[in-house]
Amino acid sequence: MPVSSFPPIFDGHNDTILSLTGSGFNPLPGGRSFFERVDNGHIDLPRAQDGGLGGGFFAVFVRPPETEDPAAEGEDARKRLTQRFQRPAEGWPEPMAMDYAQSKSLELLGRLFQIERESNGQCKIIRSASELQHCLDNGIFAILLHFEGTDQLDPDGFALDVFHQAGVQSIGLTHFRKNRYAEGVPMSFPSSPDTGPGLTDEGKELVRQCNARNILVDVSHINEKGFWDVAGITDAPIVATHSNAWEVSNAPRNLTDKQLDAIKESRGVAGLNFHVGFLRPDGEADPSMPLSVMADHLDHMVERMGIDCVALGSDFDGAVMPEGLKDASGLPALMKTLQDRGYDADALEKIANGNWIRVLRETWGR
To answer: Which terminus in the chain has less CB density within 10 A, N or C?
Structure first.
């Protein structure tokens, strides 16, 4: 089995649990096993081990019922993604029902616990930075439970308490659409991230609820006004688990220099998103893109924030990957690109996992 010569990578975002169930992006009909190597999707345990992927944020993302048709990966990927995440002329649809979102969340969380149970010690759901460090040091695949979107949460915080006790340690306030707490940015290019209103009053209270429970708040996907609302409320580091540099690619999902500066000031982290449509300066979802473009984004983020505030947030199993990387087994090619760009061993370790470990310890307090 190939072993990467680079430090083990902890990744800020994937949609793998959807892929395993046969839903989400480029699914295998009927789903697939996390423990068997296949060509579909981007992460399974054999490919993760080949590429030095030691774990990551596993997103529980509840798809709105009307968008259940799977997206395609290939020539029409940009068209399908644009149609799904474009704001209609009449505005965003109403948020999905909370009971529907809770039911789907429980199903996906249960599947992740099943992976841990069936792994014979090869996988572990982590609840502390020290557990993450232990997993990386001992070759145990680390799974961090993350909500991408908050339709499953009630304003009083009761569901938040239950999900947190179950192991959910990180929450992204919304996806591309709106919910009762926040509004995301639509899939459009070129565009500023300043695309709509900030957090609702309930959204601001949700940030306070997360702070009180030491739950990480992810600002990826929320629009610029929402970002600044979070920045003005939170007492924790600001984290964008899978977002790039807007100055390099003018996608609204990317972060402006002022936003990067705010992340630096808070001692937060931004994880580089591997989706080619958020990387390429032309915004095209075309995988024929050199990995040097990924290094360009990282260079810009390091220039604005310093080496202690950058990491990786692939969006594996939820986006179009550069053909030179393809899936988790291709991660050494990215690390080699960064090494050739001049990042030394200490910098590569921080990018691979050290900065995530630090910000999780500072956020969770353990």
So the answer is: N
